[in-house]
Amino acid sequence: MRTCGVEISGNEIFLCLLSKDVDVFDIRDIRQTRFSLPQNGQDTEVMRKFYFDFKKLVEDYKIDSICIKERPAKGKFAGSATGFKFEATLQLIPNVDVRILSGTEIKEQLKRNPIPIEFSETGLKKYQENAFAHAYVYIMRKTFKVDEKLEAERLEAQKREARKDVE
């Protein structure tokens, strides 16, 4: 399982590629650890180039999943329009499971399964720390599928409620 953790910050995204095989984590070297958009992604060609470049990165490294931390749409910590463009573009990449994890989910998973190594020992750049944590949390969620069962039950309950409202 190869997961690309993504941290969106302003008009930049930071990446960390993490894989897990037989309970062994492997931090993969990746040719590009950050992407940035000039002019806040207002140019269509710039967004297309970003899409192509990221899609190529996903194909070359055989990435199975991408995980992103959810950002609020309103309020003091609201995400920028550029950040939401990044999110949408990543979600359009075919054959990749893109998950948006809430801050609460990340904190709970890190509390349950702390990262077993100090970040300074990983060899990653400081700006990749959050992307690394996102990838780790997603892999741990996949490893312990309890969370996904609960999420599936929650979604099913929401569907039942929606059907009741329609009737």
Q: What would you say this structure looks like, in words?
A:
The mean pLDDT is 85. This protein has helices at 44-60, 81-91, 103-112, 129-143, 146-166; strands at 2-9, 12-21, 24-28, 34-36, 65-69, 97-101. By secondary structure, it is α/β, with parallel strands linked by helices. Strands 1, 2, 3, 4, 5 and 6 form a six-stranded mixed sheet that branches. It starts with a strand and ends with a helix. It has five helices and six strands. The chain has a single domain, classed as Nucleotidyltransferase, domain 5 (2-Layer Sandwich), CATH 3.30.420.
Overall mean pLDDT: 85
By DSSP (H or I, 4+ residues per run), the number of helices equals 5
Q: Which fold name corresponds to the CATH topology?
A: Nucleotidyltransferase, domain 5
Along the chain, the helix and strand elements come as: EEEEHEHEHHH
Provide the structure class.
alpha/beta
Count of distinct structural domains: 1
CATH architecture: 2-Layer Sandwich
- What top-tier CATH class fits best? Alpha Beta
Q: Please state roughly what percent of the residues sit in beta strands, choosing from under 5%, 5-15%, 15-25%, 25-35%, 35-45% or over 45%.
A: 15-25%
**Computed CA radius of gyration, to the nearest angstrom:** 17 Å
Q: Name the CATH superfamily assignment.
A: Ribonuclease H-like superfamily/Ribonuclease H
- Low-pLDDT runs of 5+ residues are none
Outline type = globular
Helix content: 40-55%
Largest sheet: 6 strands, mixed
End-to-end CA span: 42 Å
